[in-house]
Hints:
The protein is of the alpha/beta class. It has 12 helices and 13 strands.
Amino acid sequence: MRAPLFVVFFDIERKHFHMKATIAILSGDGIGPEVMKQALAVLDKVAARYGHEFAYQEALIGGIAIDKTGDPFPAESERVCEQSDAILLAAVGGPKWSDPTASVRPEQGLLRIRQHFGLFANLRPVKTHPALASHAPLRPELLEGVDILFVRELTGGVYFGQRQEQGDGGEAYDTMLYTTPEVERVAHVAFRAAQGRRKKLTSVDKANVLSSMRLWRRTVMKVYEDYSDVELEHLLVDACTMHLLTRPSSFDVVLAGNMFGDILSDEASVLAGSLGMLPSASLGSDTFGLYEPVHGSAPDIAGQGKANPIAMILSAAMMLRYSLRLEEEACAVESAVEQVLDDGARTADIAPRGDAYVSTEEFGQAVIAKLS
Ligand code: NAD
């Protein structure tokens, strides 16, 4: 476990803790630099308002890193991340690097970061803003009060188990393997998150069919002994896919393994109305984390000022909460975004068809104005 690098000191006059922290900035490709610019402007405002110092260390990742160094996550970027308190990443990829037969691809950079830093817990909040309910494919009354936090196991399970494709291509297998410690550590993350929210945890598995999922359920039940204030529900993954659409507001924290969490969180992402709204955090066993929007590099709208910066700004808010332990500041940013939406500002992806919309920069500036 690595110790945090940030320094905290107490301002007696203002009765407030001030922090000096270093953040690795990986803007990547497509709309990445556009949305990152807004997130950094918001962080600058937070720093000025609360008396913190955030030092940004820029580094290469993804397609631009391949172009400049031949490597999607070069050693210099790894060094910058290692010397930071957290990583803010925007998006990687694009048509220029999307040849499926290429041996070097932008997304390899993302997998390498997760593995290198042991980021085993992926947190994805999905919240429906009332004014955006009409953008989602469900009836607005079903979306009332939807506020779910997905906790997905990120470095184990079937994506990392032993696999083989036989020589003639006629047979192939992947192995879903989980160990008790792997399940325990991510379950603790999920239970602790539930304690700070509405105190309900849904653990998703396929315990009726898969041995690895019976171990998952047994382990979650054992970890539950430490969290008697949380209500625990077990759901089979097939039932969960239905309940997410029929009763989405009944979920608080949803804990799932790597593959089921991947699929369920993508299913639930439509509840928010646009991919441009969804942030994420990937955490390990200490305060270090990687924070990135759920969306990709959106090459179809890159360079047009149409990108929604909310996912990136809310990813920065998650960084304030989980890596820098600045809960008040994180809430202030989240509330500023809500207020801008309440005022009616919409980027192109969430504006009703034919209506005027604001640019990426204008939305960012509106969030900053709410933080004054
Ligand atoms: P995408 O998320 O980039 O875009 C899907 C659709 O959502 C597009 O129509 C896009 O315009 C829209 N969109 C996405 N983010 C938006 C935002 N912030 N504001 C407004 N609209 C937004 O997914 P894709 O088109 O499948 O992939 C494009 C590239 O991104 C590919 O190269 C893919 O490999 C890569 N990708 C990267 C990541 C990542 O960096 N984590 C994730 C997914 C895809």
